[in-house]
Design goal:
Layout (H helix, E strand, L loop, with lengths): L3 H11 L4 H8 L3 H9 L6 H11 L3 H6 L7 H31 L6 H30 L10 H35 L13 H14 L3 H12 L4 H11 L1
Length: 241
């Protein structure tokens, strides 16, 4: 809270308010406001809430300061990379899907399934992340301040990692089965029965096939949590300062 006085002064000036007008709104003296801003005294929690209401902001902004706007150049650069990846993966998905559907025989079913379980989720994830960047740039949408951001980001990465890892053995099995079907047409492979794991993995796989847009939500969540995002890291450092 060492910068709370500077933050109050910065926000007050951005609102074109004088110390006298803020003091009148708070029912205190101008000297009290001056003491807050110069660090000679600190407002208690109730006073911070009243100041936040007058500034039409939140207490976190008074304590940690306004969000640091990201460089437009950096934002456009990252957006361009996201759009490029989206077009690349989306185009590849469509090409593979068209080729398999129109020209290849049924034995390439594993390739189609691999396309749906791997490439389509990647496309949807990138789409969610790109969409949030577009909203951030053109609709002035800012990543929210989140308490314990670092812990939440780590938890999200662990959950998403487990989500992907649980389907990985089945994806590898599909790749091996496809290769074997190409080399030995008479070979038929069946995924081994593994209690508990199979129920969980197949639930994720079924959800992926029926509702791939869930990966769009994952992509949006990663943007909200700043994964990866230098602005979020800057904000996190300011929160822990």
């Amino acid at each position: 809270m060492r910068d709370v006085g500077k933050n109050i002064k910065q926000i007050r000036l951005s609102k074109n308010m004088t110390q006298d007008s803020l003091a009148d709104a708070l029912y205190v003296t101008r000297q009290t406001v001056s003491n807050y801003e110069n660090g000679r005294s600190r407002p208690d929690l109730d006073m911070l809430v009243r100041i936040a209401e007058i500034f039409d902001t939140d207490v976190n902004t008074l304590i940690y300061g306004p969000p640091v706007p990201e460089s437009k150049k950096a934002a456009y650069k990252r957006l361009a990379i996201s759009v490029f990846l989206l077009l690349l993966t989306g185009g590849l998905y469509l090409i593979i899907n068209i080729i398999i559907s129109d020209y290849l025989p049924y034995k390439y079913y594993q390739t189609w399934l691999l396309n749906e379980l791997v490439l389509l989720p990647i496309v949807m994830f990138i789409f969610g992340w790109t969409l949030m960047q577009l909203l951030g740039i053109f609709c002035n949408l800012h990543q929210p301040r989140i308490k314990h951001l670092k812990a939440i980001r780590i938890s999200a990465l662990i959950i998403f990692g487990l989500w992907i890892t649980l389907t990985l053995p089945y994806v590898i099995f599909i790749i091996i089965a496809q290769v074997c079907s190409l080399l030995y047409s008479s070979v038929e492979m069946i995924f081994p029965r593994i209690p508990v794991y199979q129920e969980i993995a197949f639930f994720i796989i079924k959800l992926t096939r029926k509702a791939p847009f869930i990966y769009t939500l994952f992509g949006a969540l990663f943007w909200i949590l700043g994964i990866p995002n230098s602005t979020a890291k800057t904000a996190e450092k300011r929160q822990t300062a």
